[in-house]
Amino acid sequence: MPRGSKTRREILRGISGGTMGVVGLGGLAAGRSAGRPRRHVVGTASARARRATERAADSVHRVLDFGRIGSAVAGVFPDGRLDALRRRSDVRYVEVDGTMHAIGRDGHAQAPGGSPGPPGGGGDTSETLPWGIDRVDAEVAHANGETGNGADIAVIDTGIDDDHPDLQANVGAGKAYVDCRGKNCNYPWSDDNDHGTHCSGIADAVDNSRGVIGVSTAATLHAVKVLDSNGSGSFSDVAAGIEYTADQGWDVGSMSLGASSGSRTVRDACQYAEENGVLLVAAAGNSGPCTDCVGYPAAYSTVVAVSSTTRSDDLSEFSSTGPEVELAAPGSDIYSTVIGGYDTFSGTSMACPHVAGTGGQLMANGYSNTEARDRLRSTAEDIGLPENESGYGLLDTAAALGFDSADST
What we know:
Layout: E1 40-44, H1 47-56, E2 59-65, E3 71-76, H2 79-86, E4 91-96, E5 99-102, E6 105-108, E7 127-128, H3 131-135, H4 138-143, E8 152-157, E9 175-176, H5 195-204, E10 211-212, E11 220-225, E12 232-234, H6 235-247, E13 252-255, E14 257-258, H7 264-275, E15 279-283, E16 303-309, E17 325-330, E18 334-338, E19 341-346, H8 348-364, H9 369-378, H10 387-390, H11 397-400
Parallel strand pairs: 7-10, 8-11, 8-13, 9-11, 13-15, 15-16, 16-17
Antiparallel strand pairs: 1-3, 1-4, 2-3, 5-12, 5-14, 6-19, 18-19
């Protein structure tokens, strides 16, 4: 239930600690990929240490700059040189460059009856109001002229189908950090998985009398592709995407991804983004039923952790829970955009962009990231779930924007 003040953990589970089941987060072991040497990330506290780390690497995957927090170098290092780096006082950490995954699982394939078929096809062109958009009363905000216009939402995920008729008008610049090196990577950021496109439609599908409608309808979406066609990406690639989001000055970072163990590199990236004005929102994880099992990056204090609810306002059976959960949002059987069409997925991945879209609307109205976060908390609806399941309560988009949603259910 809501609380007047919620104390997040002084110290979250150890950076390498925490447990999460494999439901929706399979294959999380941070080992070496087949045929590839194991990659590490070295966090440095000085320019001198960063240069020494780059020289020590057999190959450098990427260099990250988190400002006052420090830098990090991801690469392949001989064991002896890695040990020498660990002994340096200006090296903050050394960690395996592990793997994060898209957090979501398919509900069921659904031919979009009453909705348009694949782009270019025929069929009914009516627009569907997904139940989750209705439940958080986003349509009340739309009716009062709130569309998110002016906000920039980074979907840090598998990419976006920028040709989709429900997304095309809202898609802006993007960048890929999958199979790429350095900040000048030009790898295509288009979606090759469906996950990022599905999350994008929830956050910000266009109100165009066809398909579906998003929580926001006119914010600018940015594909920050950090996950590959299998929905997997390295810690350093995810961190690079978060760093890029902050450096672009975008408002919201939506992260429907996670891992069972934490990463110092990703934690630093989240801190850097939060300090630079980004509202970070992440899926809590799909390890339920369980207790104290929120994944990373959702578990970090700089990130809004979102659990998942059903049509009946129950906790979704797959949803992770724990003291880090800040808000709940619809995540079961969510109908949204996929590559070339529409489909129904379930997961905390689907809950996350409901919050991200609302955050975008608040920041379009001049809220800072911290003010938007406070507003989301203070206007959440009490649906009777324990704090570790719903945090401050269920997202209420209309209330967050100052509208009366009592006539909507």
